[in-house]
Design goal:
- The complex is a heterodimer of chains A (about 160) and B (about 120).
- Chain A is an alpha+beta fold.
- In chain A, about 45% of the residues lie in helices and about 25% in strands.
- In chain A, strands 1-2-3-6-5-4 form a six-stranded antiparallel sheet.
- In chain B, strands 1-2-3-4-5 form a five-stranded mixed sheet.
- Chain B has one domain: STAS domain (Transcription Regulator spoIIAA, 2-Layer Sandwich), CATH 3.30.750.
- In chain B, helix 1 runs parallel beside helix 2.
- Chain B starts with a strand and ends with a helix.
- In chain B, strand 3, helix 2 and strand 4 form a beta-alpha-beta unit.
- Chain B is globular.
- The chains are: A alpha+beta (about 160), B alpha/beta (about 120).
- At the A-B interface, helix 1, helix 2 and helix 5 of A face helix 2 and helix 3 of B.
Chain lengths: ~160, ~120
């Protein structure tokens, strides 16, 4: 398993950099060319959401992105440090917060006025074939992955 | 690539030329332009997306916001786009049913002329 980790300040300008890095590593890992646009858009959505959340709750905290090739899959995890108020609201009727949440299910549960959170996660759920969202009081973690060819060059 | 914006008006139709990437960093500039155009009485907008390299949900939000503003004045906001990578996000979100999407500026102008 090879992992590239990137942390960046919660500035909108850095989202493009994160997209470019993720796309470059996806290509090196052997993700099919036809899927690279999906990787670029999904990573952009996850990072945009994190930046918006940090700007509201904790502008001084960095956002972390991990890019990993493991067992024939290219996996991206975006972690923020902002409390997931909208997600907690979405789960207010649940007995307890689930550990991992299916992206599509989560997007459908979100209140309509949480446009960036709900819309962005819904787009990610449509783009990646495996998405899990881990909400918590300390932040949100979005993990998504795509198939990578066995012949791909290892990321590190 | 940064975002380049330009616009001109032809026969009551304001054509907004967009080039580059529309994301969380650049979308506010497009939002400001659309608001400015509407505030100056341009209620029929055609956004040419043929030179857009990237569009995310932030950009979609700006376009939906623009549509809402022009509709308040019985106006229209339509798009020119043939790029599959851009059309895909409109399909995923169901917004192909909300926006008129044309293959060329000429095609959109003809449709606009018929609707007048």
């Amino acid at each position: 398993m090879a992992t590239v980790e990137l942390t960046f300040s919660a500035l909108p300008a850095h989202v493009r950099t994160a997209r470019l890095v993720a796309t470059a590593i996806a290509r090196r890992t052997g993700v099919a060319e036809a899927l690279l646009d999906e990787v670029r858009l999904a990573v952009g959505e996850a990072c945009s959401r994190a930046v918006e959340a940090h700007r509201v709750h904790c502008p001084g905290e960095p956002i972390r992105i991990e890019l990993c090739d493991d067992s024939g899959r290219f996996e991206v995890t975006v972690t923020d440090s902002a409390p997931s108020d909208d997600l907690e609201q979405a789960y207010k009727d649940e007995d307890e917060l689930p550990v991992a949440v299916n992206g599509t299910e989560l997007a459908s549960l979100l209140p309509a006025d949480t446009l960036m959170s709900g819309f962005g996660i819904a787009v990610i759920a449509a783009l990646a074939d495996d998405v899990e969202v881990y909400p918590s009081a300390k932040g949100l973690r979005i993990r998504m992955s795509w198939p990578a060819a066995a012949s791909g060059i290892r990321a590190v | 690539m940064d975002l380049k914006l330009d616009h001109h008006t032809e026969d009551r139709l304001t054509i907004v030329e967009v080039e580059g990437e529309i994301d969380v960093y650049t979308a506010p500039r497009l939002r400001e332009l659309l608001i400015d155009l509407v505030n100056k009485g341009n209620f029929h907008l055609l956004v040419n997306m043929e030179k857009v390299d990237f569009l995310d949900s932030t950009g979609l939000g700006v376009l939906v916001g623009g549509l809402k503003r022009v509709r308040a004045h019985d106006g229209s906001l339509e798009l020119v786009c043939t790029q599959e990578r851009i059309l895909k996000i409109f399909r995923i979100t169901g917004l192909t049913k909300v926006f008129g999407i044309y293959a060329s500026v000429e095609e959109a102008k003809e449709a606009h002329g018929r609707d007048k």
